[in-house]
Amino acid sequence: MSKFDLILPRGKEQVLKAEDKDYDRGLLVELLSDGGYEVAYWYDKEEPYPIEVLVDGQSIKKDAKKVTFKFHPKMEDNRINEVYKDSGLGKWFGKGGKGGTTKGGWDRYNTKGEKIGKCGDAKESEGKPKCLSAEKAAKMTKKEIANAVKRKRKKDPDTDRPGTGNKPINVSNRIKNKKKKKTLKEWLLEGKRIPKTKKNQDPDTHSDLYTDENPKGTIHGLKFATETDARKSVKKIENSGKKHAHKIQAAIAMEQRAKAADKTQPAKVYRTYIEKMKRKTKEMNENNIFSFGEYLTEKTKNVPTNPELWSRAKSAAKKKFDVYPSAYANAWASKWYKKRGGGWKKKKS
Known about the structure:
Elements: E1 14-17, E2 25-31, E3 37-43, E4 45-48, E5 51-55, E6 58-64, E7 66-69, H1 73-84, H2 90-93, E8 107-109, E9 115-118, E10 130-132, H3 134-138, H4 142-155, H5 184-189, H6 227-238, H7 244-260, H8 264-286, E11 300-304, H9 307-320, H10 327-339, E12 344-348
Helix pairs in contact: 6-7, 6-8, 7-8, 9-10
């Protein structure tokens, strides 16, 4: 004779009747698929009837109809260890802090890429579970997780059940080694150059605009981290011995670097110096001190063969560039001039 009074079949509600001559009453008990129990009191008819429920002597609800007993945690651990001891799934369902984004092992995701619970807690109607560790989930976007779940359910639709012989089919998460693209600001702070790759490229996508294309003419030691750095750098530019236009271009480059790095005060220091040099440029032009010949030798200089056309080229450059004359502006004006038939001839000083 069995030592048990009644053995409950899984997933089938059992009707228990009380030994009572005056009333028909009892309990409705079901052993759930996850190992828990669902219990209800019935009276007169075999259906849940409202009744007060006490837990450890304390009233929880006056008119409860159904009470669910969850699977005992320690028994859950033992059950997992026994069923999955050879599959390596123990760490998926473990209680420790490692594995999932929260304590309790790996996390379970749905076809929307949303976390819906812990691995091993899926309901039978839910479909094939897809579990990920916190480390793997962090490397994937929500869309990538959703696609991984869909691929899993497509290639491995049968829900695993202990003892059925359904071995899981591994499906790749397709995690790519993604290198975070650095912003222009980050490149500039590291002092590195992002080359220009195409004509008329947006200046915000490369750093050629902030890079001296002729290293031989570089004024070394210029900084923009602090206001003090900027002031010292302006003195270096001033005392560099470089030509007027070169000094302006160096200051503009440092101002742009400071702006890209959100260094407002250092940028203002450079802008003040630039405005000062622009005023000086105007004075030089008015006194005919500054000319294209400044970029040539002292003994000879190039003069335009068509002065009127060259004058038009300079006017166009002044409208196009904030600073004129400058190396960039003069180069542009020269190209404009030559394209329209202009030429140069050498003239001794």
